[in-house]
Amino acid sequence: MRHPILAILAFGGAALLGACGGKGSDVDRAVQSVNAIDENNLSDIMLSVADPAEAVAYFKRATAEKPERIDLQRNLGKSLVKANLNVEAAGAWSRVTTMAGASAGDQVSYADALIRAGQWDKAEAVLDAVPPTHETYTRYKLEAMIADGNKEWAKADSFYETAVGLTTRPSGVLNNWGYSKLSRGEYLDAERLFGEAIKYDPGLFTAKNNLVLARGAQRRYQLPIVDVDQTERAQLLHTMALTAIKQGDVEIGKSLLRDAIDTHPQHFEDAARALTALEGARS
């Protein structure tokens, strides 16, 4: 797919060279330059808007034709991650890290792919080899996740805090940090972090659901004041109901399930099934 701007560039460049009577080598260089622009533009399109499977197929062809191109190998790794082919993505990023021109950022991308593939120990080893001077949001986000997995809470908090300071869009890492606090039983801190995540991204439903879990864990069974549509409100009521039931507050849970069923604009099968099971158990 060639954008009109690129087509104009190609045509205009050829016309200019023809009018000037340039030598053949000049023409070749100009064409190569335009082709390079076109190729880079197509790579961006494949990564940003193309179907993930199509992007993978495109970059597999490209890397087979030009295996020495590290930029294409990187794009193959990115496309595989986007397609959730995480084991294959880890292999692709592993190759990138061995190529001439590989950077510390490539090692971080390799570690990211390894974590996605469930290879946490290997990811930790890869991150340990990244120079400490390479200070990026992604690096510290991954470091925090690994520290979390190792239950090294002080390190995790430090890495999360650093990651938040290195991005203008911290909602995702704030949500992860909040979930870490939730898993430790630090419910007030978790609630605060989920609230911050929602402020940065009001549409982040995962953080809203986690916020309900944090409040429910404290036996505070009122929904937080957040912007939700009717379906989302019903889902949050369902989450709160299950939290109450898990803690032994069955009657409150049943009431919340009824609210969820009444709130949902369609038939809420999960809530209805849970309510039926509870009422059957008590009959």
Automatic annotation (TrEMBL):
It comes from the Bacteria. InterPro entries: TPR-like_helical_dom_sf (IPR011990). SUPFAM superfamilies: TPR-like. This is Tetratricopeptide repeat protein. It comes from Tropicimonas omnivorans.
